[in-house]
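Researcher: Next entry in the queue.
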Amino acid sequence: MGLMYIFPVSLVEGERSELLEISANGKPKKSVLILKTYGLPMIFWGYLAASFVVIAAMWLASSSAITKLVNYEDTSLWALGQLVRYTLILTPLTLLAFFFYEKHIQKSGTELKLIYKIFFITVYSKTLILDSAEALSVDHFMDSPNIAKIHNKAELKQFENKGYFELHALSNKKSVFIDRHSRKADLLKMKELLSKY
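Model: Structure for this entry, 197 residues:
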């Protein structure tokens, strides 16, 4: 998902990145860096609207057939009717969830917290204790080169599979995946930003 939901790479991007100073019980203030993913571009909302139109047309065209299937006494026909009905109900909800998905990274010293939200509700969070505040690395990943890369011809250069880059954190001497991006420079900036706090 990191190739679609991009994190900010500086504190200048105010609404998606912030630095909080927190003090509790008279203890000295500690800095907490919070990064939040950007939403999908506006063009994707057009795709979503088109998908909703198609699903609504499918619902209108099949609603009488679904009603007949659900009213049969045959279990297999009843199950088929329910399957189609719930597919047409859950597909738009699932598509909409992609547009309200958000990932947060919170970092303070050696503590790094990953928070995953759908519809502004936290569905999963994970806290890591890093080996050090700078225990982050950017690694290149490519599952397999394509034919253009293998033949290495100038006219095929634009078709080469260049892979992508992953940001990893070291926690208890284990590498933990944080995010991925197609541009190495952006992940390096994000790594530097996270290493500061």
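Model: The longest strand covers residues 121-129.
Researcher: Noted, moving on.
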